[in-house]
Amino acid sequence: MSKSNTIFRIVFRSFPISPSKNTFVSRTIQRRTLTTIANDMTVDMTATDHETETETTPTQTTWSSKMIAWQAHSYSTIDDLVLTSNARSPTMVAAHEVLVRVKASSVNPLDVLMAEGFGQVLLGTIRQAQQMSLHKPVEFPLTLGRDFCGEIIAKGVKVKSFDVGDVVMGVVPPFHQGCHSEFVAVPEGLVAKKPDHLTIEEAAGLLYTGMTAWSALKLVGGLYIWKATNKNVLVIGGSGGVGNCAIQLLKHWGAKVTTTCDSTAINLVKGLGPDNVIDYTAKDARQQLEEHGKYDIILDAAGISYNKIGVYTPLLKGWACSTFITLRSPILHNTDSYGLVGGMVKNAIDLLVPNILSGAVFKGSSIRWGTFLPIECGIKELAKLAEEKKILIPLEKTFKFKDLKDAYKRVQDGHLRGKVIITFDKPSMDKARLTN
Ligand SMILES: NC(=O)c1ccc[n+]([C@@H]2O[C@H](COP(=O)([O-])OP(=O)(O)OC[C@H]3O[C@@H](n4cnc5c(N)ncnc54)[C@H](OP(=O)(O)O)[C@@H]3O)[C@@H](O)[C@H]2O)c1
């Protein structure tokens, strides 16, 4: 099978489909049952099996119980997030899903933005397409949180790689209910066993930023096709979560890596193994960037503003298919501002204009948009590297579950040096159960 076919298959399999709404898909999905249910669950989670015996109308295996979660009831500010013990528990909708009791999760910049409504139009449209509904789905109450570490407490019959009781790390795509909640259900392809030497907190912070870096470099940057050895890569913002992962992945793949960070982060970033670290606040920062250039790939892992990309494009190699990858694509912002159709038109303009005005296209280079993609082979590679101690996950700070809003504020304040983690500690969970 070709590489592109493999990627397509993996991406497609990563997005669970609701079989009850889809008779075409339903023929291919066998009747599912929960093979096991953990005995030591702290909430009453009796499985309610609504299944019929027919192959063509499979239905969902539904948890009827409630769980503890932080939720948004409208798009507002972080302060309006609500802690409840009455949230609806997740539903396993396919036989290849696992149900996980979350022990720790990270907070990403996307969580803060989504709480304020970022991406609501496009993410809402994807949810609607998944449900094959003519009506816009009601997204509230919305649970945020994109990556986690926890224990598998139930699994579908087609899950072969994991057992109940396994401690796994995983990711949840942004158009799904997140994991800042007691339980989360995800396809088995989106989880990997936690390496023994990693703490729960370290494992919880690896996969979202890791897969953002992996997807941007491998798929958008072309390293899935071209070997990274002999590539000269600049990572802008080596001090943050995505930057940390990008540096380590690139070094593992054999690239030459130059990265930028603030003077206060230089020691941390040097420990990740790049060839050159440049203090972006230094007077001669530009000169240093030029000395180590020109670059095959420039990855912006700092979230520099879109109109400043032109400052960096002259550092790209000419006529070498070199690429500037920004993770701040305007896709979600444009669809929020102009609607789905208008937003797509604006997206096309926003992709073309900087490529032309920066002169990138006139020397065979391009400005491209990178994004997180939940791809099974990437998750497996990250898990293997973590297992082999080839990837470190620096942590900025760990917060208790009850202090989730403080964790969000820490991410909102910026200048992070690694991941912000929330632990689902027992006192917080017990208190939430009693008081909410
Ligand atoms: N599209 C997607 O799917 C996706 C997914 C994940 C992340 N992202 C985006 O990617 C960016 C990075 O994410 P993250 O989770 O790694 O964020 P993060 O942990 O907040 O890291 C950003 C890092 O960049 C540093 N920085 C800021 N300005 C800089 C500059 N001019 N030069 C060099 N370093 C600079 C910051 O520290 P100092 O300010 O102290 O220098 C911070 O350490 C964010 O904009 C995020 O929204 C996009």
UniProtKB/TrEMBL annotation:
SUPFAM superfamilies per UniProt: GroES-like, NAD(P)-binding Rossmann-fold domains
Recorded superkingdom: Eukaryota
InterPro entries membership: ADH-like_N (IPR013154), ER (IPR020843), GroES-like_sf (IPR011032), NAD(P)-bd_dom_sf (IPR036291), Quin_OxRdtase/zeta-crystal_CS (IPR002364), RTN4IP1 (IPR037397), YIM1/Zinc_Alcohol_DH_Fams (IPR050700)
Compartments where found: Mitochondrion
Protein name: Enoyl reductase (ER) domain-containing protein
Domain Enoyl reductase (ER): residue ranges: 76-422
MF terms in GO: oxidoreductase activity; zinc ion binding
Keywords: Mitochondrion, Oxidoreductase, Transit peptide
SMART domains to which the protein is assigned, alphabetical: PKS_ER (SM00829)
One annotated Gene Ontology cellular component of this protein: mitochondrion
Predominant cellular place of this UniProt entry's protein: mitochondrion
Pfam family, one: ADH_zinc_N_2
Protein species of origin: Acyrthosiphon pisum (Pea aphid)
Record keyword Magnesium present: no
